[in-house]
Amino acid sequence: MRPPALADVRSVVLRKSPRCDRCRLPLRWCVCPAHRDVTCPLEIDVVTHHREWFRPSSTSHLIHRVVPASRHHLWRRERKLTVAEFRVPDREVWILHPQGASMPAGTTAAQAQVVLLDGSWRETSAMAQELSAQARVVSLPMVGESRYWLRAQADRHRFSTVEALLFLLGALGLSAAREEVGRQFELHVYANLRARGHKELAEEFLEMSPVPTAFPELLAQLNVSRPMGPQTGCCNGGAAV
Whole-model pTM? Predict the structure, then answer.
């Protein structure tokens, strides 16, 4: 069970350290050796609010890294995007947001293009409102508690951007893609918790996670004690499967 008090879940390491260009984690906690590309017939676009763009924990960057065919767009109030700028021909565009209508019955992944909104609740609501006249706004029946333990939430049943994608992949029957994206997401959360110094919380997170089974070698490597000091090199060239 996720601890109720997570308001202080933030980095305890004040000193800046070099980060991997690919996974954006400090080199000590780079997860790139476990990276695997995910392909699926669904067209995926992620629209990220400019305040979210530079946050290493942002799951929009995780989506773009794990699903290379996805597209990533920056949202700024002074330079608003339109759906026409990235609409894929012969696809029905869905803007995923909790305030939308139910997912259309009978639509396959090969017929849909999903737009995921990344930002705070207020930011994504404003983005959805401005884009709603240009495409169908769709909501999904998302149940359970969020596994995104990197930020405090007023409501544990609000989900991160990548978790919304996981629910959609499941609803469309893309189970293999859902499982792999889910594993990469869980590893992302675990490594970020460790990078912030939350070892006990990270170990608790693993109790209900597929990470130990999916990535035992990397997990053992991450848990090897290392001397303090400057770190060089990066494993962002790790093989992708």
Answer: 0.86
